[in-house]
Amino acid sequence: LPSASHLPKRTLFPFASFFVVALLFSCNSPYVPKPAGYFKIDMPQKAYQTYNEPGVPYSFEYPSYARIVRDTSFFGDAPENPWWINIEFPQFNSRIYVSYKLIGQYQLEKLINDAYNMTNKQSVKANYINDSLISTQNGVHGTFFHVGGDVATANQFFLTDSTKNFLRGALYFDTTPNQDSLKPVNDFLVADMLHLINTFKWK
Q1: Taking 70 as the threshold, does the pLDDT of residue 21 lie above it?
Q2: DSSP 3-state of 107
Q3: For strand 48-51 and strand 58-63, is the pairing parallel, antiparallel, or unpaired?
């Protein structure tokens, strides 16, 4: 067989042209990054049960896939009363921290300002903060906060009867905050938080 150097030029030209065109197209084609992928999370069926313990000044409905435990430590110290609880969601490595305070020991205005201040502490990383007023048929009033961005707790609320009782709840995850990967679970648990609020009663 003849070597490539002995092939006629008209034979080499199509091959050379093909490689030049292929090289140009491969260099000029835009790079399309693959979208970030996250593990699919199987959500449990919605079902609720009542939390109504003797001596506790409030009651509400919470999901059957959650468990309630007494909060025994607040930043290393014991809670100021026995009605601080955690609503834990083991499947999602998350919990709603619930703190309770008596109006009288604290001024209502201070309790409300503290709730806003704790939410606003996340403004450094937050894209936005939305607050919505709460008013239920059970005479419960308050505010629900939704914080956008990679923040420690994207969903918080406080409830009060304006005369005696004040309660604050905040949803936390035991993981690095990432609003994109946590969005499906956040949306799922926000529905449970709203159900808790709508079924909440003072005793």
Answers
A1: no
A2: coil
A3: antiparallel
Which residue carries 């159900």 as its tokens? 195
Strands 48-51 and 126-135: unpaired
For the chain, the distance separating the N- and C-terminal CA atoms, rounded to the nearest angstrom, is: 100
- pLDDT above 90 covers a percentage of the chain that reads 63
Task: Kindly state the tokens that stand for 3.
Answer: 């070597």
Distance of alpha carbon 198 from alpha carbon 106, whole angstroms: 25
CB 192 within 8 A of CB 200: no
52 φ/ψ angles, rounded to the nearest 5 degrees: -150, 75
User: Which residues neighbour 151 within 8 Å (Cβ) at sequence distance 6 or greater?
Assistant: 122, 125, 126, 177, 179
Q: Is 138 helix (H, G, I), strand (E, B) or coil?
A: coil
User: Global pTM?
Assistant: 0.77
The residues that bridge with 126 in the sheet, in sequence order, are 149
Judge whether 145 and 131 are in contact, CB under 8 Å: yes
Q: Which of 15-19, 26-30, 40-44, 146-150 has the highest mean pLDDT?
A: 146-150
Quick one: which of 168, 127, 159, 121 has its CA closest to 140? 159
The DSSP letter of residue 180 is: H
pLDDT in tens, 74-95: 656 778 899 999 999 999 999 9
Burial class of residue 124 in the structure, from the number of CB atoms within 10 Å of its CB (0-12 exposed, 13-18 middle, 19+ buried):
exposed
Dump pLDDT digits (tens) for 91-115.
999 999 999 999 999 999 999 999 9
